[in-house]
Amino acid sequence: MPEPSGCVNSIPTTALGLAEGGLPVLPLRANKRPFGNCRACDDLACGGRPNMAAPGPCACPWPCHAWAAATTDPSVLTSPQWASAWRRARAIGYHPGGAGITVVDLDDADAVAWARATLPPTRTVATTRGEHWIYSGTMHSVNRVRESVDIKSTMSYARWLGPGTGTLTELPNAVRALAEKKPAPARPTPRAATAPAPAGGGECPHRSPAYLERGIAMAEQRITEAASAVHSTVYRTFLAVLSTHGRCGCLTETHIDRLFTAAQAKGESLRHCADAWANATTTLGL
């Protein structure tokens, strides 16, 4: 985790220094929510969710939402597309997983006391209400693993509050165990998708395979995190994936299987998944 030296004069300057040290960064609003970092997605006009990387009907040349937008590339950080966001930013966010670290976010004094009695010591950063405990190594991110304790690593972002104090230590099993949940009631084994991948032929927006992989991963997360209106969420997510990735031929049946599997894990039937996919392709004329 980088520790920039010397004084810095602005949020963008600090962000560039962190990026040079290998920390993927992104601008945050006053409420710690990320921007959409291009004109099409400014103030989430594209329909994206403020805490997600997956946009709505967005055809941006690079990921421009939340953790997936975090980057160390100075040409992106200083680009005109990001300039407005940096001017209005009130804080710097970063992607812990992209830097190979995990943040245990302790949101009050009781949580801090619990960590001191339970977890191995590591680098700590003071926050407004508690502390961030930072470990070397990554894991999947989970909110509310216990009262006032969140884990932020892959597919998540945290607020940069300084380099902290103490020695960075290896991610312990005690933290990994916090993310383990009791098994949910058994659901029927998901069946493979029967929907064909779009034929393609349109302009390809994918500068690298990572762009498509991030889009699919965030679509899976959006479905998995749906607390209500699962039918609607699945359809809207399929529509967003097809809108962004379905016209060039890069979307494969393997990607569709992943989306169908996520939907079936939320209780959707294979038939409902197939209907939602067919409706989305019809809506977009694919």
What is the H/E order?
Answer: HEHHHEEHEEEEEEHHHHH
Question: Which word captures the global form?
Answer: globular
Share of residues in helices: 25-40%
Mean pLDDT: 83
Q: List unreliable stretches of 5+ residues.
A: 4-9
Write a structural description.
By secondary structure, the chain is an alpha+beta fold. The chain has ten helices and nine strands. Helix 7 packs antiparallel against helix 8, helix 7 packs parallel to helix 9 and helix 8 packs across helix 10.
Summarize the structure.
This protein is α+β, with helices and mostly antiparallel strands. Helices cover 36% and strands 13% of the residues.
Overview features:
three-stranded antiparallel β-sheet, alpha+beta, six-stranded mixed β-sheet, 286 residues, 10 helices
Summarize the SSE layout with pairings.
Blueprint: H1 11-20, E1 25-28, H2 66-69, H3 74-77, H4 80-88, E2 91-94, E3 101-106, H5 109-118, E4 123-126, E5 131-136, E6 142-146, E7 149-152, E8 158-159, E9 169-170, H6 173-178, H7 209-224, H8 230-245, H9 253-265, H10 270-284
Parallel strand pairs: 5-9
Antiparallel strand pairs: 1-2, 2-8, 3-5, 3-7, 4-5, 6-7
Helix pairs in contact: 7-8, 7-9, 8-10
